Amino acid sequence: MTARWIALLATILLAQGVGASASAAADLSRETLMLIAPVSAAIAKVRAEQAALPPPKDDAEKLLRMRDLEQAPRAAMMAVDFQKVPPAERKAAYTAMWEQITPIDEANQKAVLEMLPPEGWFTISRYGKEASRAAFLIVQHGNVELWRRFVPVLEPLAAMGEVEGSHFALMYDRLETMEGRKQRYGSQMSCKAGKWVPAPIEAPEELDARRAKFGMEPYAGYLAKNFSGPAPC
Q1: CA nearest 47: which of 92, 104, 102?
Q2: What is residue 140's three-state secondary structure?
Q3: Contacts of 219 (CB under 8 A, 6+ apart)
């Protein structure tokens, strides 16, 4: 998506009042609306592209299209330069963007539950790695109730190689930390003094052994690869 295309579509969306709820838009300047308009543009682009396609041939293809629709606005949101958003408008800007993403997430989660096969998940051997990964992303962007439901389903499948081990570990850790317990695989971080640090970890001396069980790299390498740069939080 070119910058010129984004700017053009953003202008159209703003003229039509699309891209933020009426309440959120009332709190944002035109300059801020233009900064966050790529989120609307990304959603519109994917919807237009998918509308031109024939219906999905199977559930695996449907999952991939659902993934594309939920990932596009997230990528656009990550690219927004919030240093250019006045501090007084940042909360409303976040709200305006999430109000566009949340309905997509909720529709995707509903569809995943309706498509769920008898074995309880979209296994790699039946649906392929990318479709299985797409289902994980959709559920991971859900709520605690969904995580409670699927963590015990994913664990044995991950041990069998039918689900990527890192996916099970991430969902397990997120559930544990959200419910006030220690994580087991070290995937969850918290921001302290402007730096990302690991959330509390259960039996840290056994961390690498637990990670290796599911094909995950040693923890020191994981931290160096993802959290060794300038303070990101």
Answers
A1: 104
A2: helix
A3: 186, 207, 208, 211
Decide: 151 and 114 in contact? Cβ < 8 Å. no
For 219, the 3-state DSSP assignment is: helix
- Look up residue 53 and give its DSSP letter: S
Are 19 and 100 a contacting pair, CB within 8 Å? yes
Tens-digit pLDDT profile for residues 126-155: 999 999 999 999 999 999 999 999 999 999
CB neighbours (10 Å) of residue 217?
A: 13
Give the C-alpha separation, 210 to 194, whole Å: 29
Q: How do residues 82-106 score in pLDDT, each as one tens digit?
A: 899 999 999 999 999 999 999 999 9
Q: Look up the pTM and report it.
A: 0.84
Vertex 116: Cα angle to 113 and 122 (nearest 5): 120
